[in-house]
Amino acid sequence: MVNGIIRIYSGSGRGKSPAALGRAVQTACRGGRAVVIQFLKNKGLSDSDFLKRMEPEIKVFRFEKSDAAFESLPPEKQEEEIINIRNGMSYARKVLNTGECDLLILDEVLGLVDNGIITLEELKSVLELKSEHTEIIMTGNTVSKLLNELADEVTTITSDIK
After folding, report:
1. What domain range is 30 assigned to?
2. CATH number assigned to the domain comprising residue 73
3. Residues whose CB falls within 8 Å of the CB of residue 16, separated by 6 or more in sequence, listed in order
4. pLDDT per residue over 35-80, tens digit each?
5. φ, ψ at 105 (rounded to 5°)
6. Which of the residue ranges 7-11, 22-26, 141-145 would you say has the lowest mean pLDDT?
7. Cα separation, 82 vs 150, whole angstroms
């Protein structure tokens, strides 16, 4: 099992989240545990009966309450969702502090930075909690130079479909 690595799957193409979930399945097949926290995914995968059957090896969490896109919400609903998202980030801290998993996936976390919901420094403080035995995967469309430097591996996924 590859441990202690920070990976980023970024870019404008489709497939970043499925690639991260594939790593979760690989981790589970090797006897490890994966925690997936989804952000800005509208309904996301948290209601999936299939994924519930993968527990306890793979656990998927979504802290946002609305099924609508964050950008389409009125300002007061966005503020409510920001609180929920911050709860998700707090949970990520807890997972890393307790060593609850071998792989932590922060799905679309880069979008939180892009939308000003969290700062790069806040995300960096979460990453600093990683033990040498925990892998972290972050997904999103764009990656900053600072996060690029913190990552051990950055994969850019583009789409050539016209």
Report:
1. 6-139
2. 3.40.50.300
3. 9, 10, 139, 140, 157
4. 999 998 776 665 667 777 888 899 999 898 888 888 888 999 999 9
5. -105, 120
6. 141-145
7. 25
Determine the Cα–Cα distance for residues 20 and 138; give it in Å rounded to an integer.
Answer: 8
Strand partners, 36: 60, 105
Alpha carbons within 13 A on the beta-carbon side of 155? 14
Question: Residue 159 domain-assigned?
Answer: no
Give residue 145's Cα distance to chain centre.
18
User: What is the DSSP code (8-state) at residue 7?
Assistant: E
Rounded Cα distance, 49 and 113, in Å: 30
Q: What is the CA radius of gyration of the chain?
A: 15
Question: Residues, the chain, total?
Answer: 162
**Across the chain, what does the average pLDDT equal?**
89
Name the strand (E) or helix (H) holding 157.
none
Q: Work out how many domains the chain is built from and give that number.
A: 1
Contact partners, residue 84, CB within 8 Å, separation at least 6: 63, 64, 65
Which residue in the block uniquely carries the two structure tokens 């972050």?
138
Structure tokens at 93: 């801290």
